[in-house]
């Protein structure tokens, strides 16, 4: 058995730095450039993730060939993800940086078309989400938000509650 698969060809610190740089680049790309989803994953979304993973692999890996090098990269990415989750839970400033704020889509029964355009949502998308929240009439909506995870929350006028 060839034990060279367990040796390092690339210094572990270089792998950690490369993994860190790619993690934060991809985080910024997904957080600030790409839009929130409307609660579903389409074929284009899956394709994008696969292509990004493939494109970033060489920049991150730097030509690694052994098992420990792959493990260092995976642990680096998992470590940053865990640390960001922990810091978001513990510190409001980090949470505000890591998660987009809720986006107001409807105010007092009026659709905010600029905010819909910002997330590439159609009026049909909004109406579908309102129906899923038990609201059939736009006039009944006091506020409707797209949350940071792509889900919708709806606050109806006083005395009325969504039935969903």
Structure, briefly:
The chain has helices at residues 12-33, 43-61, 67-90, 92-98, 113-118, 123-132; strands spanning 103-107, 110-111, 141-146, 152-156. It has 164 residues and is α+β, with helices and mostly antiparallel strands.
Describe the structure.
The chain is α+β, with helices and mostly antiparallel strands and 164 residues long. It is built from six helices and four strands. It has a four-stranded antiparallel beta sheet with strand order 2-1-3-4. A hairpin with a 5-residue loop joins strand 3 and strand 4 (152-156). The radius of gyration is 22 Å and the shape is elongated. The termini are far apart. The mean pLDDT is 82.
List key phrases describing it.
alpha+beta; about 55% helix; about 160 residues; 4-stranded antiparallel sheet
